[in-house]
Amino acid sequence: MQAKERIILALDVDHQSRALELVEQLKNHVGAFKVGMQLYNSMGPDIVRDIQNRGGRVFVDLKFHDIPNTVAAAGRVMTRLQCYMFNVHAAGGKEMMARLVQEVHKEAQKLQVQAPLLLAVTVLTSLSQQQLEEELFIKDMSVEDLVVQWALMAQAAGMDGVVCSPQEIRPIKQACGEGFKTITPGIRPVWAAANDQKRITTPAQALELGTDYMVIGRPITAAADPVEAAQKIIDELEAC
Ligand code: C5P
Fold first, then answer.
1. Which of 115, 142, 224, 228 is the 20 to 30 Å CA partner of 159?
2. pTM of this structure
């Protein structure tokens, strides 16, 4: 995979105009654009088509979590939108993910389109061990063990990979194999501000840990010259 293909730019903005300005500037420097709850809920599915019409691929980051029938229906919609990838919460369970996989592949075959990559979110990186025990009542298990167990469950359901912290890449790849995809946020080149990210990894470190895709937002979008910032990250990855 080319270095730039690994970069997924987080379009954490409200407006179509700013989002599409970034798409026009950066479509030749990144592999895909991530549309999350902020932008999708402001602009609706048209924003996905607008990005695609400009030649960009889209990761729809809406983290579905509902009964199997409802998530499978949302998956058919995502397939019709022809997004590049989208995600669900592994906490929705194996049946929810298995139904999703089945329906997405059926729909893709019916439409003769590529099925989106199906990703599971395991334990949100914002949750601490203490919250896991005191608020979710998951005891006697470390966050890392839970992440690996949920990644294994996602894989058994037929999912393509997980969104995880760079620290979790090695244990997940060891358990699930190198072919099971990892998508990692929390990426900060040494020259960029950490912002609110706590456990950060440089693009080169994430690549060395074996990540497949890295979600990067502010180091590129808040840079004085976003294209130059993206190119510096590509150069860093190519030097690995
Ligand atoms: O601007 P920054 O590079 O911090 O953006 C990271 C993106 O990845 C944001 O869209 C954020 O919501 C997302 N994300 C994250 N940490 C997670 C999961 C998602 O930063 N654990």
1. 142
2. 0.97
